[in-house]
Design brief:
Elements: H1 10-22, H2 26-37, H3 43-54, H4 60-81, H5 102-105, H6 153-159
Helix pairs in contact: 1-2, 1-3, 2-3
Length: 166
């Protein structure tokens, strides 16, 4: 018997192929290799090594093959459940026209637009005179403003008033 440090030698590979051709299981092959060559191996190691030796790849290729078989089976099942009606060649699909919606035909109420606020910096105060709880009246203070300001001095005090510390 030969003792080797690694179990991936040409002699062991040849023995795996010979035992595989006899039809032995991977677990049985692993036991034979351990007994014959006195190296540690197990079923999964033999399985991976035999796939490498024989060039079999059970990874992505096998997964894609299973997926393709499944897709073909589902497609065949759908074909038996829903047979397609033959359609003449060069005939466009039918055009579906729906009646207009009643809401689209109803007249929309016309609401007059409010007047725009005065432009800022025109020399007149833009402080609104309506209260928060009242509807917007678009009436402004209209007093003279200092150059570059939008509010007159009185309205400016109301807008930017800060309580003094007592």
């Amino acid at each position: 018997m030969v003792s080797v440090s690694t179990w991936t030698t040409p002699e062991i590979d040849a023995r795996i192929v010979a035992l595989k051709q006899k039809g032995l299981s991977h677990a049985r092959i692993a036991r034979e290799i351990v007994a014959e060559f006195r190296v540690f191996t197990n079923k999964n190691m033999v399985l991976r090594r035999s796939r490498t030796i024989l060039g079999l790849d059970r990874g992505e290729k096998a997964a894609n093959e299973r997926l393709e078989r499944k897709r073909k089976a589902e497609k065949a099942e759908r074909a038996t459940l829903e047979p397609k009606a033959p359609r003449p060649v060069n005939v466009p699909p039918p055009v579906v026209t729906l009646p207009p919606l009643a809401s689209a035909l109803a007249p929309w109420p016309v609401v007059p637009s409010p007047p725009p606020p005065p432009p800022l910096g025109n020399g007149k105060c833009a402080f609104p005179l309506w209260k928060d709880h009242e509807p917007i009246s678009h009436q402004y203070c209209d007093k003279r403003t200092p150059l570059g300001s939008s509010f007159c001095p009185d309205c400016r005090r109301v807008c930017f008033y800060r309580a003094r510390a007592a």
